[in-house]
Specification:
By secondary structure, the protein is of the alpha+beta class. It is built from 3 helices and 3 strands.
């Protein structure tokens, strides 16, 4: 894709954007957010489903391995986004979150 997307293997032990949050705190907070999304799933089922699927995927990997495997980087994106590495679950969380926000704004 002309250097716009690069596959870069990275094990991320921290939270989103590499924030150094302890594993126990991160797992507990993730579980709480997923529970809230589960309760809110009827208002925007597609958005909640995407966010829940991505969140559960990352949480499962974090509980099994203690870290999440990220592999997609956008080197031509504006700074600071060009230095971060993502995975498919991250994109699902982003898309689901945007769908949930758009649904709330329409009301």
């Amino acid at each position: 894709m002309g250097g716009r997307v690069r596959l870069t293997a990275l094990w991320n032990p921290g939270a989103a954007f590499g924030l150094p949050i302890p594993e126990r705190v991160l797992s507990t907070a993730s579980g709480a957010v997923l529970a809230v999304l589960w309760c809110d799933r009827r208002r925007c089922p597609v958005g909640a489903g995407l966010a829940l699927g991505g969140g559960l995927s990352n949480l499962r990997e974090r509980l099994r391995r203690g870290r999440v495997y990220d592999y997609v980087r956008f080197p031509r994106a504006p700074r600071p986004l060009n230095r971060y590495v993502f995975n498919l679950a991250d994109f699902a969380i982003l898309a689901g979150g945007l769908a949930l926000l758009m649904r709330r704004k329409r009301r």
